[in-house]
From TrEMBL:
Biased composition (Basic residues): 416-429
Protein name: Uncharacterized protein
Presence of keyword Transmembrane: yes
Region (Disordered): 407-440
Feature: compositional bias, Low complexity: 430-440
TM helices/strands, residue ranges: 32-50, 176-197, 217-236, 287-306, 312-332
Keyword Signal set for record: no
Keyword terms of this UniProt record: Membrane, Transmembrane, Transmembrane helix
Length: 440
């Protein structure tokens, strides 16, 4: 397709020789009407956004919003958070109808506009992560502005574990496999964009060729249907009912813990052993994974979801609409894979060399694989509360695991050796045997 910034959908419509006089082939609403619909939705979205910002200010109750990045993060949260279905649908409809009006005026210009706008918009979520990383050292230092982030960071007080949800978050996964998945998704998303750019015309339902995308009433209606489907993807089970595909909570936890130079430990079920990963504060591999996730689950996901109406509008059959929607799901799900649960432990050089390592990691496996959380001392390290001032309630079934692991960790920190314990046990046995002989 040549770069043509002057040809409109109406110009292409006048050149089409339709085979039938089907309602699908009728002219669409005028671009001015489409633009007016988008403008009305935009005004409503702005009003809802201002209201959401005010609600955030009231709920946070921060004395001075000029300090730090709280105000900026509130603005970003109010705009990108999908915790309100009404606001998400209104925002999506406003953007989509404005772009539909642009497509009717000139497909090429509108296409580049869509790429630019949603590439910039996809920066909002990683920007929040970077602002949190810059502003805090521990999780407890953060003023969390998002309901979803607050739920993920606070719902388990004792949890100091990380649960990856895709290959980019999974630090236990081999880098070669991660690179293969990344290259595959980049290629497939690139193919979709090339196809979208080159198919500004399509076949109508009656087989008429050269029909402009968004330039017939049927294509215009399919585009509106695509808006609804995109809202379902943003708010339905695919996104865990509104949560961001980029999983900001995970990256905030991971990047903040790297400031403490911790050790990650997990139980590898394939090798049947507990493994360790020592992390330095200047670890660059984490940042590579972060930016890979941003490019795929941020830029790629945004473009695919918001370009779905265009893909639907270019279909020439009802089955093609289904195939487009299913194909989009496959692309964004290709990297989804829950990895091993990684427990975060403090920086202790003796952790791997001490003789009690196996016993402690067994308890860590029990605590991290289950749903009860981890050891309280790990929570104090992770949150910055080294004195243990937080009053946290421990599930009854977890008390034994926590007490046992805590005792062994205390022994590790004091550099106690199991040899002493064995000597003490041996001496106790000797005393008991001697006393028993005396009684006899």
């Amino acid at each position: 397709m040549d770069l043509n910034f002057t040809e409109s959908a109406k110009d292409l419509y006048d050149q089409v020789e339709f085979k039938t006089d089907s309602i699908y082939n009728w002219p669409p609403p005028d671009p001015f009407i489409t633009f007016s619909i988008g403008g009305a939705f935009s005004l409503l979205a702005f009003v809802l956004w201002v209201r959401r910002v005010r609600v955030l200010y009231q709920n946070l109750k921060v004395k001075d919003y000029s300090k730090g990045t709280i105000r900026l993060r509130c603005w970003l949260t109010a705009y990108i958070e999908n915790d309100c279905a009404l606001f998400t649908c209104v925002r999506m409809a406003a953007q989509s109808f404005l772009f539909l009006a642009g497509i009717q005026l000139n497909y090429t210009g509108a296409f580049f506009g869509i790429l630019g706008v949603f590439t910039v918009e996809s920066f909002c979520d990683p920007l929040r992560v970077l602002l949190c990383f810059r502003e805090a050292v521990f999780i407890d230092d953060l003023v969390v502005t998002s309901k979803f982030l607050r739920a993920d960071l606070r719902k388990h007080p004792l949890t100091t574990t990380l649960q990856p949800h895709n290959v980019y978050e999974d630090l236990t996964r081999d880098s070669f496999i991660v690179g293969m998945v990344f290259a595959t998704q980049v290629l497939l998303i690139g193919f979709v964009l090339i196809d979208l750019f080159s198919t500004h015309t399509h076949y109508c339902l009656d087989g008429s060729s050269g029909c402009p995308v968004g330039g017939t009433l049927g294509s215009w209606a399919f585009y509106v249907l695509g808006i609804f489907q995109a809202c379902v993807f943003l708010l339905g089970p695919k996104s865990n009912f509104g949560q961001s595909e980029q999983n900001a909570a995970y990256w905030i936890q991971l990047l903040l813990t790297t400031k403490q130079s911790p050790t990650y430990t997990w139980y590898d079920t394939i090798d049947a052993e507990t493994k360790f990963l020592k992390v330095k504060s200047s670890e660059w591999k984490h940042w590579i994974r972060f930016y890979m996730s941003f490019l795929i689950n941020g830029v790629g996901f945004h473009i695919l979801v918001h370009a779905l109406p265009i893909q639907i509008a270019s279909q020439s059959s009802l089955v093609g609409v289904v195939f487009r929607a299913v194909g989009m799901i496959y692309l964004v799900n290709l990297d989804d894979s829950k990895g091993y649960v990684m427990a975060i432990v403090p920086d202790d050089d003796d952790l791997q060399s001490a003789t009690l390592q196996d016993e402690v990691t067994d308890d860590l496996d029990d605590a991290s694989v289950g749903s009860v959380g981890s050891v309280a001392s790990f929570y104090r390290f992770f949150s910055g509360n080294h004195n243990g001032d937080n009053d946290v309630s421990v599930p009854v079934q977890a008390q034994k695991i926590i007490a046992k692991a805590q005792a062994k960790l205390d022994a590790l920190q004091s550099k106690a050796r199991p040899r002493r314990r064995r000597r003490r046990q041996h001496s106790n046995k000797s005393k008991s045997s001697a006393s028993s002989r005396g009684q006899v």
